[in-house]
Design goal:
By secondary structure, the chain is of the alpha/beta class. The chain has seven helices and five strands, in the order βαβααβαβααβα. The longest helix is centred in the middle third of the chain and has 17 residues. The protein is globular. It starts with 8 loop residues before the first strand and ends in a 7-residue tail after the last helix.
Amino acid sequence: MQQVRTPHVVVVMGVAGTGKTTIGPLLAARLGVPYAEGDDFHPQANIAKMSAGTPLTDDDRWPWLDAIGRWAHDRHGLGGVVSSSALKRSYRDRLRAEAPGVVFVHLTGDRALIEDRMSHRQGHFMPTALLDSQFATLQPLEADEAGVSVDVSGDPGEITDRAVAALQGLAQPSL
């Protein structure tokens, strides 16, 4: 497997269950950059809310997004991959405010496939019951946003291959 190096800081985004935590580290390894798990940036109060099946509010998300943005900012010119649902344009704008050069890999897929994958994972705080609210909140990448959409059908290696190929089509960030 060929490693591809990039100074991009990539935010792997999408609704719960699309594979951000699986694809993120695989993508980082292929790009030769560090990976940061976006869930690790959540304050404990956010995790408690989600574990209880309560969707987060925007006010809950701002400190989390700011922390991810600071990490991405610190990786500017060095590259990195971080996961974040980044479901709304305003969330992605918030991340770009901290780290203007970030690019997004939007993991997309059929709701039934994603629900099936969520129902088989263990030890994750996000219940399947919140999937509807995730899809209702999702605002796909717009034409003026640096990023690519990648279908999540297939195995993790195939998904990662598609993500790497799609990222190679993006212009390199200015350093």
